[in-house]
Write a structure and sequence with these properties.
The chain is mainly alpha-helical. The protein has two domains: 7-55, no CATH class; 72-103, no CATH class. It contains four helices and no strands. It has helices at residues 16-21, 26-29, 72-81, 88-103. It binds zinc ion (2 copies).
């Protein structure tokens, strides 16, 4: 992932101590990662996860679990594509009582 978004900070804000002190970070507030123009130490900065490839690891940071059902976003998308003439209760009943059992 790559972006043209450019922010810089002084470097006292994106360390664990800075976050704990509640110091506002221009990079973090602008939803941008720190880079070489920031004044922070790359070994202490907590706003470089993507450039340092610090993604969550399955098994270490993330646990895989079997779940049942559909997420709310999928449910709302399904409600949007069902005929408008059906009421919302009818649409929900169709998804929860018919569709879920048909696709499991
Ligand atoms: Zn920064
Ligand atoms: Zn930083």
């Amino acid at each position: 992932m790559w972006t043209n978004k450019k922010r810089t900070c002084k470097g006292d804000c994106c360390t664990p101590e800075g976050k704990e002190a509640g110091i506002e970070c221009a990079c973090f507030d602008g939803k941008a990662e720190c880079d070489e123009d920031c004044g922070c130490d790359p070994t202490k900065c907590k706003n470089r996860q993507m450039s340092l490839r610090q993604s969550l690891k399955l098994g270490d940071d993330v646990e895989e679990r079997i779940s049942w059902g559909i997420d709310i976003c999928t449910a709302l998308n399904l409600i949007c594509v069902l005929p408008m003439s059906l009421g919302n209760t009818c649409k929900s009943d169709f998804i929860e009582d018919k569709l879920i059992f048909a696709i499991q």
